[in-house]
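hey m, so remember when u said the C-alpha cells were messed up on ur end? i reran from scratch. heres the input so u can diff it against urs
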Amino acid sequence: MAKSKIGNKILLTSLFFLIAVIFLVIFSWSTSPLYTFFGYDSSIFKAMGKFMADGLTPYKDFFDHKGPIIIFIEWLGFGITKSDYTLLLLQAIFLTVALYGVYKIANIFVSQKKSVILTLVSLLIFSIVISGQGGNTVEEWILPFIVWSSYFAVRFFAYKEKEHSCKYSILYGVTLGFAAFSRLTNAIPILIFAGVILIYLIKQKAWKNILKNILAFVAGALVITVPILIWFAVNGAMDDMIYATFIFNYKYMVVKSFVADGLRILKHTLRYLLPLIFAIVLQIIMIAKKKDVWLNAALLIQSTVAIVMYITGALFPHYLHIWVPTVVITLILVVKDYGIMKWFARGYVTLLVVVFIGTNFIAFRNYHSYLKDMAVDYDKKCKDVYSHMPDKKARILCVDSNAYFYIVTDTKPTYKYFHTQDLHAYYDKKTKEEWTNLIKSNKARYMVVSRKGEYPMYSYLRKHYHGLYENDRFALIEKN
C-alpha cells in the first residue's frame, strides 16, 4: 500500500512537471525557446542575476526596487549559466510544486480524477495573468508558497479542526518572509487567511493555541529574514537593501496608487477581473447556503481586496498571480457542492474558458505586433553598438535603455542605477539626487542612450559627452 501511494505521487508529480514545462514553453514568452522576446521586468531580473554571478553586490553595485529574493532566484536560474533554459527549468519546478498544491486542495473535497482535472483547469486562470507580462515575474515565484499555505488554511476549515497546527503557521510565516523580501503585498492572501483563522480561534477562546501559532508564525518569517539580513550585513549592503526593498517601495506604492480612468478599468475588468468578480457572487451564494461559511468568508475578503487593490493600483496583470488560488479554491468548492451549484459550476467554467480564449488571443496578438515593431533585430542592434566601443574591458551604462543590453553584450553597469533611471528618480527624491550626482561625476566613460524618446538627463549628457556611433535604436556616447 505504501509503495502504491509513493508510486502515485511520483506519477502525479511527473505529470504535473511535464504539463508545467509545456505550459511555460507556450506562455512564458521571456524564457521560452519558441519566442524572440527579451521581456519587460524579466530582462531586468535576468540582468540582476547575471550581475550577481559576475561578482556585483545587490543594491550596493546595482539597484532595483524588487526585494533580494528575486535576485537570488535569478542568480540561480539565469546568472550562473546565463541561459533561459535553466531559468525555464526552475520555473517548471516552482510551477510543479504549485500544481501539486492545487491538486492537494482539490483532493480534500473531491476524487483524485476530479482533482487532476481541476488542477489542469487552474492553468487556464494562470495563463490569463502570465501572458500579460511574459513570465518570470516576482508574483510567479511566490505562487507555490501561497498555494501550499492556502492548502493548510483550507484543510483547517474543511476538517473543522479544534486547534490550528503550528506547522501551518510556520509556512504562513515563511510565505510572509518570502513576500517581504520580494514584494510585500504578495503576502496579503495568506495574511487574510491567517486573520480569519485568528478570529475563528478567538471565537473558540483557544488562547494557548493562538499564542503558539503566533510564535510559530514569527519563527517561520525569521527562517527567511535572518539569513538574508546576515548575508547583506556580511556584504556591506544592509542599508542599501533595506532602503530599496522597503523605503523606496513604500514611496513607489504611494505614487503608483491611483484610480485609473473608467475605460481602462473596464478593459482590464473584461480581460482579467471577471473570474474574481464571478467568484464573489459564488462565495456569497455558498455563504447564504451555509456551505463552508468560514472558508468562503475568507475567500470573499480575498476577492474583494484583490479587485480594490488592482483598480486602485497600476493595473499590471502580473499583480493578479497571487489571487489565482482564490479563484481556483472557489471553483473547487463549487464543484464539491455540484448538486446545488450545478449551473453555477457550468457557468463559471464557461466564463473561465471564454476569458482564457479572449485574453490570450489579445495577448498573443499584442506580442506579435510588438515583435514586428520593436523586437526584430534587437540583439543585433545591441551588439552593433557595443562593437563600436573602443575599450571592451570598460564598463558601460545604459540610460533608459532595456536592461537586456547588458545580457546581450555581457557587460556590467558603471553606476548602480542601471536601467530606467529617470523613472526611479521620479518616485524618490533621494534616488533622484543620487542619480544626478552619479551622472555629474562623469565617471562613466561610455554610455548607451535610447534614440526612442527624450529623457531628463539627456540635456546634461549632450554637453559632457560626444557621439561615437548610432543606429536606429541606440546611440553610443563617450565622455569629452
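this time it looks ok to me. The chain has a mean pLDDT of 89. if urs says something different then somethings off w ur setup not the seq
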